[in-house]
């Protein structure tokens, strides 16, 4: 009785220590990532402002604001045009000074940085949000859920499908399906939008089973259940395109990792002990392989993220990427810069989430030992 | 040299690799031929030259080989020009000037109506221009004849568009000219009457030395081996020139990126300390930098020239995942005895990195280099698809973008999207397959799996 209690307390203590380690690891990663994001966004600002574009945004904003104010001011309306013009120029100069546009770029760039980091992204030139606002932050945040939905679903499908198929292929090493996957893996060199075009041709244009694009039908169904169903219906082609573009290579590399790990001595030992195949796979093959798989998956997801502008444009998906595409067409500078900043954030969050999962599955982090030396 | 021979011998065991290698060699020879046959200036003229270059071509029609797979044959484009056949014209004096008569024979055996008819008149006169008078008449194979139109040639270069002649449409009973002129009156739904049509052109000039040449164009519903786009351009130019552009972009970007990444990894792992730390941190920052949005930013704000985009691509891809894996191997190489020997005889840092460390990883570099090419080929196309392609050069991505923009998929003009996509796929796959096989040959860890 007491023995059980003791072992229970040891187990609890071990759990506590593991939790502590994971927390410490996570916090360290979070801090490094934050520094990384700050540096990354600063670089983005530097690139964007090489031609003075951020200054132009500010100046345009100031001019517009001052003009509106001067035109609306009844005391100024009676002034002769020259005097009013002069008053306006004075006000503009004053405002520019207030925003620090007369300061050297190095100082100003840090102000831009704080603005970007706090998502204070300014106002767009032309694009508006659905509610008619010109606040870039609103425009982009409104589009975020659509992008997250599309890529979240695709990433999940891709990850589990690749894991499952990789495992089953490693069991049938050398079979027809195995050879087929190896032979097809170069297909993954084409990006998702490319497969998207083919899927649209076959399933939307010729067979007319699935829609050409968009997120819901117009007008959207009122019933939330039907709405979800319609969303799923519109998700089929884009998710298939993303999956098709990456699945072969992912399955191939997963299967290769599994094969490498299942030829380890301790796996042979487990086999000799007569453990069940399922147990061997779960405990002796999958566990040590997962960190490697997650790392390679992280790189894959980052690649998918950056492809979003084209992918969403092809499928007419109302997400961040398509907004960026529209902004390019309209030369809407604030939206372009802000999208880049948001993407930097998204990438950082992705890296962080995957790091967190890594911490949970990697025994080296869990048990302590030496830190990951990547 | 021996190494190369051994690689080749191993490569022969992979039939897919041999096939892709042949394809790559073929593509390289083809691109050299294309650049010589259609020089840069000529390609740009053919692609951006304006209406005068492609006025004879029908609008958005598929290539002519689609007729091989159709039961209903589509009409081809027919161009009849008296400048090439002066013998078609007969002259007789009439008043102050003369009467020029010519008859065009138009064989028509397709199952669908042509897209459009148009005539171009070129007047040459020595002194003051007095507008000649033209009357056109049409004769169908079953013997019906019809007055088409009468008009004066208002300028030395005059274009008569059948489609814009409202009187002709009235005369045809409200039917569009391309249907009304060719329709079989007994058929329902309207079908074209097959046989030889005759178009008689009578021109009355008011000066003896005035001459008129006539060019008749029957715009068909197929054109050439590649089809045309919304501007009537022959897709051949764009599709052919896309190959050297894609190969150049892919090769330069891949070679630049992998060489630079390897060199930087070697430098970092050799010197260690803060240099290595710096490279590591830069790699981490680069992972968070959104690659495509930054390229889009550069493309929109600064320049869309393919070389600027190429440079930025290389800069942003150097500090990628490859640097980490190279570094891991270099850290092992650094401790090897032969490096110590080199150090003992007094080799400098530069010599050790360039002559001792980098060559050691060449076997890893080659597959990475080859398999990197397709992603850059597709990257160039991707940029063009969102409208950031090179403003002058014709590329595959630009053709796909034009097609997308003009709703090619909705309107059933599949050839327009599928042709460049197919070429992209073929060229991308060739390098991917070869890189894949090379990876299995050079990478001992993968051998046997």
How many domains would you count in the coordinates of chain B?
2
Spatial order of strands in the largest sheet of chain B = 2-3-8-5-6
Compute the average pLDDT of chain B. 86
Order of helices and strands of chain A: HHHHHHHHHHHHHHH
Number of helices of chain A: 15
CATH class of the largest domain in chain B: Mainly Alpha
Q: Main β-sheet of chain B, in a few words?
A: 5 strands, antiparallel
Q: Tally the beta strands of chain B.
A: 9
Query: Mean pLDDT of chain A, as a whole number?
Result: 82
Helical amount of chain A: over 70%
The CATH class of the domain at 142-361 in chain A: Mainly Alpha
Secondary-structure arrangement, i.e. CATH architecture of the domain at 142-361 in chain A: Orthogonal Bundle
Give the termini distance of chain B in whole angstroms: 28 Å
* Uncertain regions spanning at least 5 consecutive residues of chain A: 369-374
Largest sheet of chain A: none
Radius of gyration of chain B, in Å, reads 31 Å
* Termini Cα gap of chain A: 46 Å
Q: Can you count the helices of chain B?
A: 16
Care to describe what's here?
The complex is a heterodimer of chains A (374) and B (449). Chain A is an all-alpha fold. Chain A has a domain of 220 residues: MetI-like fold (Orthogonal Bundle). Chain A contains 15 helices and no strands. In chain A, helix 12 crosses helix 13. Chain A starts with a helix and ends in a 7-residue tail after the last helix. Chain B is α+β, with helices and mostly antiparallel strands and 449 residues long. Chain B has 2 domains: 257 residues, Orthogonal Bundle (MetI-like fold), CATH 1.10.3720; 156 residues, Sandwich (Jelly Rolls). Chain B contains 16 helices and 9 strands. Chain B has a 5-stranded antiparallel β-sheet with strand order 2-3-8-5-6. In chain B, strand 5 and strand 6 form a beta hairpin. In chain B, helix 7 packs across helix 13. The longest helix of chain B has 37 residues. The two termini of chain B are 28 Å apart. Chains A and B meet through helix 1, helix 8, helix 9, helix 11 and helix 12 of A and helix 8, helix 9, helix 14 and helix 16 of B.
């Amino acid at each position: 009785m007491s023995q059980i209690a003791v072992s229970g307390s040891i187990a609890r203590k071990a759990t506590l220590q593991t939790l502590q380690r994971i927390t410490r690891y996570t916090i360290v990663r979070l801090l490094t990532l934050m520094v990384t994001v700050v540096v990354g966004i600063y670089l983005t600002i530097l690139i964007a402002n090489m031609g003075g574009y951020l200054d132009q945004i500010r100046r345009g904003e100031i001019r517009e604001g001052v003009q509106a104010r001067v035109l609306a001011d009844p005391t100024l309306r009676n002034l002769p045009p020259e005097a009013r013009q002069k008053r306006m120029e004075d006000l503009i100069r004053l405002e520019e000074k207030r925003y620090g546009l007369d300061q050297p770029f190095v100082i100003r760039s840090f102000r831009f940085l704080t603005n970007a980091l706090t998502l204070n992204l300014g106002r767009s030139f032309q694009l508006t949000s659905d509610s008619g606002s010109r606040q870039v932050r609103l425009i982009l945040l409104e589009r975020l859920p659509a992008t997250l939905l599309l890529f979240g679903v695709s990433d999940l499908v891709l990850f589990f499908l690749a894991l499952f198929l990789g495992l089953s292929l490693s069991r049938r090493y050398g079979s027809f399906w195995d050879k087929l996957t190896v032979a097809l893996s170069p297909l993954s060199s084409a990006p998702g939008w490319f497969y998207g075009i083919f899927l649209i041709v076959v399933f939307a244009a010729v067979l007319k089973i699935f829609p050409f694009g968009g997120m819901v039908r117009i007008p959207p169904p009122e019933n939330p259940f039907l709405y979800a169903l319609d969303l799923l219906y519109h998700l089929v082609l884009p998710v298939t395109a993303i999956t098709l573009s990456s699945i072969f290579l992912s399955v191939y590399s997963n299967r290769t990792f599994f094969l490498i790990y299942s030829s380890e001595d301790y796996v042979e030992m487990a086999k000799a002990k007569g453990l069940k195949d399922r147990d061997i796979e779960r405990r002796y093959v999958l566990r040590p392989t997962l960190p490697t798989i997650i790392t390679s998956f992280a790189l894959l997801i980052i690649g998918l993220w950056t492809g979003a502008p084209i992918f969403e444009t092809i499928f007419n998906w109302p997400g961040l990427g398509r907004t960026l595409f529209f902004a390019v067409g309209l030369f809407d500078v604030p939206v372009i810069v802000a999208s880049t900043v948001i993407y930097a954030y998204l990438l950082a969050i992705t890296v962080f989430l995957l790091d967190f999962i890594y911490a949970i599955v990697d025994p080296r982090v869990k048990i302590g030992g030496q830190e990951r030396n990547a | 040299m021996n190494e190369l021979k051994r690689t080749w011998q191993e490569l022969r065991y992979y039939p897919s690799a041999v096939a892709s290698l042949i394809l790559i060699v073929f593509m390289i020879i083809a691109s050299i031929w294309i650049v010589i046959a259609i020089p840069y200036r000529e390609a740009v003229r053919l692609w951006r030259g304006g209406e005068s270059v492609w006025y004879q071509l029908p609008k958005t029609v598929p290539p002519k080989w689609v007729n091989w797979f159709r039961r209903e044959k589509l009409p081809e484009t027919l161009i009849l020009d008296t400048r090439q056949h002066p013998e078609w014209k007969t002259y007789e004096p009439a008043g102050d000037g003369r009467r020029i008569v010519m008859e065009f024979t138009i064989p028509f055996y397709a199952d669908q109506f042509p897209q459009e008819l148009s005539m171009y008149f070129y007047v040459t006169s020595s002194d003051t221009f007095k507008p000649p008078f033209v009357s056109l008449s049409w004769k169908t194979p079953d013997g019906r004849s019809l007055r088409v139109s009468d008009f004066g040639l208002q300028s030395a270069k005059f274009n008569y568009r059948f489609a814009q002649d409202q009187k002709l449409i009235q005369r045809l009973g409200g039917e569009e000219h391309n249907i009304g002129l060719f329709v079989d009156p007994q058929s329902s739904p309207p079908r074209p009457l097959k046989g030889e049509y005759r178009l008689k052109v009578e021109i009355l000039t008011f000066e003896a030395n005035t001459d008129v040449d006539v060019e008749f164009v029957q715009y068909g519903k197929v054109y050439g081996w590649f089809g045309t786009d919304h501007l009537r351009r022959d897709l051949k130019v764009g599709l052919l020139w896309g190959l050297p552009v894609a190969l150049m972009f892919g090769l330069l970007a891949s070679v630049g990126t992998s060489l630079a990444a390897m060199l930087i990894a070697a430098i970092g792992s050799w010197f260690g300390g803060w240099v290595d730390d710096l490279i590591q941190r830069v790699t981490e920052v680069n992972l968070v930098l959104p690659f495509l949005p930054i390229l889009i930013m550069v493309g929109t704000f600064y320049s869309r020239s393919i070389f600027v985009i190429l440079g930025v691509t290389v800069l942003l891809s150097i500090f990628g995942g490859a640097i980490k894996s190279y570094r891991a191997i270099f850290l092992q190489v650094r401790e090897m005895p032969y490096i110590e020997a080199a150090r003992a005889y007094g080799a400098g840092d530069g010599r050790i990195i360039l002559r001792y460390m980098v060559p050691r990883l060449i076997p890893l570099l080659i597959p990475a280099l080859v398999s990197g090419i397709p992603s850059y080929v597709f990257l160039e196309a991707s940029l063009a698809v969102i409208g950031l392609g090179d403003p002058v050069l014709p590329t595959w991505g630009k053709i796909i973008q034009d097609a997308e923009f003009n709703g090619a998929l909705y309107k059933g003009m599949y050839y327009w999207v599928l042709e460049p996509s197919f070429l992209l796929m073929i060229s991308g796959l060739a390098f991917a397959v070869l890189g894949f096989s090379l990876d299995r040959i050079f990478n001992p860890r993968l051998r046997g799996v």
